[in-house]
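<purpose> Linking amino acid order to shape
<body> The protein record starts here
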Amino acid sequence: MAASTASIISKGFTFTLSNFTGKLMDIDGPGVNREALDITHQATTSFKEKTPSPFIDGEPINIKFQSNDTDNFATIITASAATFTLTYPIAIGRTTAASWAVTAFCTSIKQTGALGQVISGDITVTPSGVPTFTAGG
């Protein structure tokens, strides 16, 4: 399934994800991490030695949402990797917003409740590759 884009906007934050629309309730992420590699060798006499890994890993982004887009709810998990963009609110004194973008795909989706035609749920998006941060102006 080819990924198209749709926006979810709330509290000044916007993100695009596949062909799904809804209301952003909460977002945990984005983040990155880099592991420490153990380089201890037999000549080491006391403390372990470590060095930073040359690889940086994008952490999963967890999104809580509400939506009445029940037609596309199940298709998010099968969508191809696409550009995931998080646009921040415009900062005081700025005219444009900062944004964070990375190629990502959905690795988990869970409906947590329904009230009438509105569903609530959690989406986990896993980034792949180098994120791009664009500062606001």
Q: What stands out?
A: The CA atoms of residues 100 and 133 lie 5 Å apart. The two ends are 36 Å apart (CA to CA). DSSP finds no helices and eleven strands in the chain. The chain has a mean pLDDT of 79.
